[in-house]
Structure formats: C-alpha cells, structure tokens
Amino acid sequence: MNDAQEARGHVVASYKNATTRTVSADGVTFAYRELGPQSGVPVVFLTHLAAVLDNWDPRVVDGIAAKRRVITFDNRGIGASTGATPRTIQAMAKDAVTFIRALGLEYVDLHGFSMGGMIAQVIAQTDPQLVRKLILTGTGPAGGEGIKDVTRLSHLDTVRGLFTLQDPKQFLFFTRTAGGRRAGKQFLARLKERTHDRDKAITLTSYGAQLKAIHRWGLERPHDLSVVRQPVLVANGESDRMVPTVNSADLARRLPNAELVIYPDAGHGGIFQYHREFVGTALEFLER
C-alpha cells in the first residue's frame, strides 16, 4: 500500500499543486509527485545533476500531464528521499527501477534529462521489458564527448553565478545571447511558482556523488546501443556546453529506432526554452 493509491481517481492538473508523496522499497523512502490522467502508460521523469522535485519546469510537466500520467521522483539520497546517493549511473538506474516497481508499475515511458538521460539508457539495457518508449534530452552516451568535463564546467559556472549574483543554471543551461538570457530568466522564475511543500535542496555530499557518477560515465567505454529497440526521441539545444550537442547526434545515430530534434539558439536547457514545441513533439511521439 502506498500514498499513490489515495490519489486514484483524483486528477491533479498542475505540478505546482501536486502533493509530495512517499513510497518505501529496498530500505529507501522515495519522495515523488504525480499528476495527469490515471490511465495509460505513465511517463517517469529522471532528473539532472543537483536537481530535486522542484527543478522540473512546470510548463514541461504540466504540458505532458495534460495527456499523460507523469511521475517525478527524488532518487536515493536526493531531496526528501532517504539513503546515500550512489556514485555510479548504473546504481542510480537500479534505484530508479526499484522505485518504479514499488509503485506497482510494470510498463513505463521514461523521460531522462541530462544525468537522467544517462540513467534512462541504463534502464533500457538492464530492464528492457519495463520500458515502452524513451525521451532523452540534453544527454549523451557513456564515453561521450566532453561528458567527463561536467565537473569542471559546473564548478566554473557556480563561481560565475556567485560573483554575478545569478543562478548557475543561467550559464549552464542557456546561451549568452539575448534570447538565451531571456529564456533563462523566465525558466528560473517558473521554478519558483510552487510556494508550498517545496522539496529539500540537495546536500553537498549527494552533489559530489552525482558529479563522480557523471565523470565515470564520461570515461566509460561506449555501450552497444543497438540493443535498445524501443522508439527514442532525442532532443537538445544546438549549443549545449554541459553535454555537447554532438552527443545527441551520436545517440540518435547509434540507437536503431531514434529521431533527433535540435533547437536553435539554445543550450543544455533547450527543452525548457522551447517548452511549447518540445511538449507538442513529445506528446505526438508518446501517443504515436
């Protein structure tokens, strides 16, 4: 029995008002939110480095949840979830599968952004029967170009943010053009729309563990992605500094059943800058 069962039949329409629930499995209490219709294959969102539940763009969550059941969650040791954060993407994927199964789900779509996209790739390889379709955004394959540099870039832009009194995501997720700066400010404002029942911030220990996991992913030997038979939508901005955009093209080329969308004048957070376009494309892909 878990909190989700209390919510059956009650459709939550906006991420801003979605209740934070918990489910326990394998010694971990996972914090999660869900919204949208209760029927159909759910879309489980896997989030980025340093992110908690409140880091998902509500326009993207609400947009997908207009047609699909969406579930967001904090993996082991993140935000309000208990336990120690793993130091490998593979262990994070194992925990994500534990969470999905704890909700009683046998078949899901996955949307993995950045680090979440790395986790989604592993799940598709270790538990293929669990996954119907994949959306991989702002991410790259194991051993992908420049992924091992994420730690350096993150530290650099965190310092840059401190000196300019800006959120580092303004630099990490968006271009420095007028359009990119404007999109970044709008995105950061949307992240503050939820004013109650906000999640706990990530701890420095967990952040360090995630950086280590991404660094290891960047140094791994490339995986055989030809085994991933599911349909995959790959999307990114054309100027991703964090996970260079060439990785998105590489994923789309190596996955047997993939399509690629690249947004102009956009960086790592291209799906947030172009949230209307992305939601439309994602829904069409999921419902096809």
TrEMBL record:
Q: Which Pfam families match?
A: Abhydrolase_1
Query: Mind telling me which Gene3D superfamilies this protein's record contains?
Result: alpha/beta hydrolase
| Domain (AB hydrolase-1) ranges | 42-272
**Organism of provenance:** Streptomyces spongiae
InterPro entries in the record: AB_hydrolase (IPR050471), AB_hydrolase_1 (IPR000073), AB_hydrolase_fold (IPR029058)
- Do the record's keywords include Mitochondrion? no
Keyword Hydrolase tagged: yes
Supply the source organism's classification. Bacteria, Bacillati, Actinomycetota, Actinomycetes, Kitasatosporales
Sorted alphabetically, which keywords does the UniProt record give?
Hydrolase
Molecular function in Gene Ontology: hydrolase activity
Q: What's the protein here called? A: Alpha/beta hydrolase
